[in-house]
Amino acid sequence: MEHTRDDLPADLVAALARARxxxxxxxxxxxxxxxxxxxxxxxxxPEAGPADLDLRALLRLSLAxxxxxxxxxxxxxxxxxxxxxxxxxxxxxxxxxxxxxxxxPLRHRVHGLAPAPAATPPGxxxxxxxxxRRTASHYGHRAWPLLLLDTGHAAAALFLAARALGAGxxxxxxxxxAGSPLATVRVPPPGRRGPVHRAGGAHRARPAADAxxxxxLLARRSTxxxxxxxxxxxxxxxxxxxxxxxxxxxxxxxxxxxxxxxxLIEPAADGTELRRCAAGEARPTLAAWAAGQAWLAxxxxxxxxxxxxxxxxxxxxxxxxxxxxxxxxxxHLTALRHRLAARPVGSWQQADLGAALGAAPGRDWIVxxxxxxxxxxDEENTT
Length: 383
Description:
The protein is α+β, with helices and mostly antiparallel strands. The protein has nine helices and twelve strands. It has helices spanning about 10-20, 55-60, 130-140, 145-165, 215-220, 235-245, 285-290, 315-335, 355; strands spanning about 85-90, 100-105, 110-115, 125-130, 170-175, 185, 250-255, 265, 275-280, 300-305, 340-345, 365-375. The strands form two sheets. It has a six-stranded antiparallel beta sheet, covered by helices on one side. It has a six-stranded antiparallel beta sheet with strand order 9-8-7-10-12-11. β8 and β9 (about 275-280) form a beta hairpin. α4 packs across α8.
């Protein structure tokens, strides 16, 4: 996979088309360092003062690794490869002096990079970019959709951590207009609000009104397959509604369910009920489309984000995948609150859902998924 400066693909449209094809990746290659080699010495994040944003806790609840291998983190990642890199632009109201820092999630330390830009607002702005080599080492040409989804998950993890800590209302930017940073999340100190929403700019998600508790975020893990047992309608509706509200208008959402009435269901227009949008057993086909993951054919339900037509331009591709990752992350937390087993599913080939349902081909592709069940197994942090 050829890339330009900053590890970006030379042609994201072509990269997505190839990732959606049946072509199989080649042998694994070295993933390289697990963390970007930030310049300068590492420094600990100081304890927050009474009026400060607790930056140490914010990152611990969202991005920091909890074991020496770096595998276990509150943020899921395809293959547990964690390609997302984070720069922090720190303003007043934080325990660190204002400036730009690189974050090391393995050591939970920061590296000073540069002074803060002029007029940096209070709080912290996290800028997310990716080291594509980490994900491409295993997934090859299928890496770029996964990189974007992982970035959306990282943004959602920071968003939820800010809400759990009672910080100011976060501002999440997932517009897809820039290749680097791919996404940003600004978190004001407690008691302060983010900037006013600007049309076409900030993307404000609308998750459940009640903020998560810190222990919920640290306990979030992807359930290993199998995930059997059909979720009750109330829980499935809550998960679908959370995803739809969090993702903006570019994506549609449905869920594939099995017996006694196999088919696809989606939220009704008013959001209070689920309606049947297609009949027939879809899960074996989804298993084939999802890189041949046979266990999906027996999952209790499979939540699907779909859209992003074949002729989408690069900003549209970035936006829909970033928002899909963000929304699935929030939906995953909703699923766990309803005592469901859940596992994100990010790799999809030939998954033209619209064509399979009789619509024009190339218009309605599966972008992301979340497998759901009611029967739990031991947990691990992979997607």
